From TrEMBL:
The protein, known as: Response regulator transcription factor
Cross-referenced SMART domains: REC (SM00448), Trans_reg_C (SM00862)
GO molecular function, a single term: phosphorelay response regulator activity
Keywords assigned by UniProt, alphabetized: DNA-binding, Phosphoprotein
Length: 221
């Protein structure tokens, strides 16, 4: 899942981003509305976490732009204003959810994960294919009942492949969905991550390379 975090409170924005990355999300960060507008013009996000009260272009403006674009990006608005009128107004702009500051980080994660599931075709909270089970909410993976300890990036790559449900996923698509904006498109990070993921999942192999196309979950192409 790829997430944009935009908040002029730099420490808060960086802390939220780092926390979401621990849950295998690819997170881009900016500290004003102008930066958020630039990024949504270039990248496709599953979820945008926006502070309503940023200077210059506000979170409201960014939210409205996303709603008008039809991009499918889900929006979680953050604000210190806790009144019902404020929540209603934010949701009326096209936001999908609303969270007041200060908030519990566990609640933020749960809300972002829920919005991420809504940004794509409906999928069950637990994905199971070819003996591999992936539980997004609990951040757990098993292979034939055996726990598999994955790094955040390995978990993210496996999630993208399992969401594809047998469709071939290109290396470029994996970079876009599992890495942030600083990923080098010429890096071998995807190949190395898939290689270590295969080793951890064990035999028989469930991730197969499709020459000149990408990777898929399932039997050999």
């Amino acid at each position: 899942m790829r997430v944009l975090v935009a908040d002029d409170e730099r420490l808060l924005a960086d802390t939220v981003a780092e926390g979401l990355r621990r849950f295998s999300m690819a997170v881009d960060v900016c500290y004003d509305g102008g930066g958020a507008l630039e990024r949504i013009g270039v990248n496709r996000y599953d979820v945008a976490v926006l502070d309503r009260d940023m200077p210059g272009h506000t979170g409201d403006e960014v939210c409205r732009c996303l709603a008008d674009s039809g991009s499918g990006t889900r929006v979680l608005l953050l604000t210190a204003a806790a009144g019902i009128r404020d929540r209603v107004e934010g949701l009326g702009l096209g936001a999908d959810d609303y969270l007041t500051k200060p908030f519990a980080f566990a609640e933020l994660v749960a809300r972002v994960q829920a919005l991420g599931r809504r940004s794509a075709p409906a999928l069950p909270p637990v994905l199971a294919q070819h003996g591999v089970t992936l539980d997004v909410a609990r951040h757990r993976v098993t292979r034939d009942g055996r726990p598999v300890n994955l790094s955040p990036k390995e978990f993210a790559v496996l999630h993208v492949l399992m969401r594809a449900d047998g469709r071939v996923v290109s290396a470029e698509e994996l970079l876009e969905q599992a890495w942030d904006e600083f990923a080098d498109p010429f890096t071998n990070a995807v190949r190395v991550t898939v290689m270590t993921l295969r080793k951890k999942l064990g035999e028989p192999q469930v991730i197969h390379t499709v020459p000149r196309a990408g990777y898929r979950i399932g039997g050999p192409a």
